[in-house]
Amino acid sequence: MASTQQQLPEGLSSDSQNTVTVGNGTLKSKPNVSKNHKTSKQKTPVEPAIPTIAVFYAFLLVNTLAAAFVPIQDCDEVFNYWEPTHYLNRGSGLQTWEYSPEYTIRSWLYIVIHAIVGKLGTLFSSRTTAEFYFIRLALGAICAACESRLFSVICKTFNARVGIIFGIVMATSPGMFHASVAYLPSSFSMYMTMLGMAAFMDWRGGLKTGMGIMWFGIGAILGWPFSGALIIPLLAEDFALSLMTGDISEIVYRYLDGVIRSLLVL
Prior knowledge:
Number of strands: 3
Distance between the termini: 88 Å
Shape: globular
Helix content: 55-70%
Order of helices and strands: EEEHHHHHHHHHH
Number of helices: 10
């Protein structure tokens, strides 16, 4: 097919594909615009963002429904925690052998904290059910706060979309629906694990190893001891980073800081 050459006005001549020569000898560039080229600026995709307070209210709504409708599925929750709490607040309750003075393998500290929360519920009603639901609502609110904290750190560390997916999974998980308001040390350790993971992931302003150790330590000492094993991979990563940077003294300081924080809180 024969090609056609564009005719330039008189006094102009084409020296190259992108330049033209004007009569006085000066060069001017010729715009190279293709047929499919769009001159309008394309908008950069914006990551979806949801305020953390809105996510907290969403988690709180789900946990409130759990506090109102989820049945108690574990006999350990009834006899090792609800019954001793009823004993402290009402003067009567069944006792398991773990709390017997003969064995005393369980601490009353975890129960005393919840018994105080239950007593606050009597400010609204003197009925026993008021204490029951007030404790459950308090557990749900604490869990929602921990979930929101982890959501916020995930959004800032990775991106908002990953955080939104995390929020959807947590809010629709049947396991979280039951565990969020369970009066069990394992649920308390779950709260502390979320805070500990958030501390290890949040590098803004420096590493927060001490704070992460503190949260995991509180969860292991006051809640479920075996949950302390969850910190091992995080400490291994932190230690490996310190070896690569040659900052061994700093990691020793961070470890001691976390242990001291755990002991001071308890």
